[in-house]
Amino acid sequence: MAHDGAVTLPDVEPTGRRNPRLRQTIGDMVRSMLLVLAVVGAILLVTWRPSPEAVKVIDITPVLAFAESTATFPLTSPVGLSDGWRPTSARFEPTEKSVPDPVLHIGYVTPADAYAQVSQSTNRTSAYSAEQTDSGRPVGSLTVDGSTWEKWERGDRRSLVRSDDAVLTIVSGGATWEELTTLAASLEPLAAS
Prior knowledge:
By secondary structure, this protein is α+β, with helices and mostly antiparallel strands. The chain has a domain at about 60-190: MucB/RseB, C-terminal domain (Phosphorylase Kinase, domain 1). The chain has four helices and nine strands; from the N terminus they run ααββββαββββαβ. It has helices spanning about 25-45, 60-70, 125-135, 175-185; strands at about 75-80, 85-95, 100-110, 115-120, 135-145, 145-155, 155-165, 170-175, 185-190. A hairpin with a 7-residue loop joins strand 2 (about 85-95) and strand 3. It is rod-shaped. The termini are far apart. About 25% of the residues are buried.
């Protein structure tokens, strides 16, 4: 059979139904795209969560002034820490395990973004010590600026504990021993009002 290259198509008969696509325009496509973008935008708006503020630094001066004016025991506070030490909490009030004795608490985020705190009170009960050290146990001692501190530890919680005649001071947190030692070494008596 010889082919001459011509192709013939059968005659197409109309079905009697209109083809709706023949009447679509660019405007219809733009409206459809806007509708899809609006749905996606609504989903993003509902599910979007803002990033939390990294660290909220506070001024500890008012708490120190209040503690100094009301405390019946000598207080110390951190002095001369680098800008990497950011105070995030401060209070002078009893804790659950120290009642009725008030506790001076100052919390920091360290330069390595760990947490460290200083707690001072006249309370020397085992319940209070367990509260402040996360039930840590003594694992040794070290000397910081001529003062002996006991090293306590439990899991990733480390504490330096010093007891003198009037005050129990505990420096603790998830910070490294080096950072806790730096914080303990920065403690100086509060200046007289």
